[in-house]
């Protein structure tokens, strides 16, 4: 293990530690997706830390078996696991306390799950905590396709948005859905459906998911809930991940917030083990690929991308959340079976819209080649001086018509200006010199007027 934070130590002097599990953890192979798990965003989410430590051990042990599903997942993904995001709060929490706020906050007294930038309610000049900055840096240095944040104190899976706009004439009451609500509901229900149904009924996550917990006094029906519909909050890690192009869900694993009974915790792990592993498998579905320069075939980093499709619950004005390519030009995006289009842009390149189809239990691979924009020729000093000369117009109707066709061609294909001018010169090279200069200048004026 190694600390991933490049920021100063936490207020207490502690580090944040992450485990990277891969058959090649030093250098990630091209087009290999990244997945992350985060626990204990609030310091009294002790059970979330426990199940992630067990997940680390489980993946390492099962990797020894060549025919295990876990080995295949490790060979196909780069898995990052941060068991304890709030070690300072955890050290002050009360072991076994099922409710209360002891240990919830970091050493400076901040709720880390309210400390992230909020795209709906930005807070200019807000100073963020070192834990928050470390997570933001971690996210930006990688390209996670999927994230699972583990919590305790509720038996439910939540998904974005948590935040709601506060400066609108019609405030949102109830769910606040993202443009990718179909994916989030799919991920949440996939987790619920893959909990272990063989456990004792009192510990069976499937029967308990959504069940009433004394601390929150609410049932959650099928076990999933939109964050804003449950408890609207600004500055959550869930929303920040989505704004950075990552699909993150938050999973509650116990009613007792800081459960420390090892027998109970062992049952919690057995209940959630298969569902946690199944989340890693979700990277196998959707679209992935690379964006490259059409001429050099070199990767294009940081290219904004948008997956276009029809969203029945949204109006046409809503734009899907964009994401960007990695330093190697790679991209991943979870998507349900269906037909889509991928919109790709990058400075200095022509926009590309690529249609693609995602089939059931498969991922689609795309290599997107972007063509460079060809800038129009600038007006030269020679052309400007031509306008000041005493030129006697002696151009017949046929020549003017011919040049008009060339100018029209230039209006349709601005990038071919140089070739058009050369063609015009060769077509009129037998005309008298004064006539050609006037024609040459007219072409520049028409092209200049169109482009600028």
Task: Report on this structure.
- This protein has 452 residues and is α/β, with parallel strands linked by helices.
- It is built from 13 helices and 15 strands.
- It has helices at 46-62, 69-76, 87-92, 130-141, 181-193, 205-208, 227-230, 237-243, 262-281, 381-386, 397-412, 417-427, 433-451; strands spanning 2-3, 17-21, 34-39, 78-82, 144-151, 157-159, 224-226, 247-252, 286-293, 304-308, 323-324, 330-333, 338-344, 352-358, 363-370.
- Helix 5 crosses helix 9, helix 11 packs antiparallel against helix 12 and helix 12 packs antiparallel against helix 13 (433-451).
Shape designation: globular
Q: Give the distance, in angstroms, between the N- and C-terminal Cα atoms.
A: 57 Å
**What is the SS-derived class?**
alpha/beta
Given as residue ranges, the uncertain stretches (5+ residues, pLDDT < 50) are 198-207, 310-316, 386-452
Q: Would you kindly provide a brief summary of this structure?
A:
By secondary structure, this protein is of the alpha/beta class.
List keywords for this structure.
452 residues, 15 strands, 32% helix
How do the strands and helices of this protein lay out in sequence?
Blueprint: E1 2-3, E2 17-21, E3 34-39, H1 46-62, H2 69-76, E4 78-82, H3 87-92, H4 130-141, E5 144-151, E6 157-159, H5 181-193, H6 205-208, E7 224-226, H7 227-230, H8 237-243, E8 247-252, H9 262-281, E9 286-293, E10 304-308, E11 323-324, E12 330-333, E13 338-344, E14 352-358, E15 363-370, H10 381-386, H11 397-412, H12 417-427, H13 433-451
Parallel strand pairs: 3-4, 3-5, 5-8, 6-7, 9-15
Antiparallel strand pairs: 1-2, 2-4, 6-8, 9-12, 10-11, 10-13, 13-14
Helix pairs in contact: 1-9, 5-9, 11-12, 11-13, 12-13
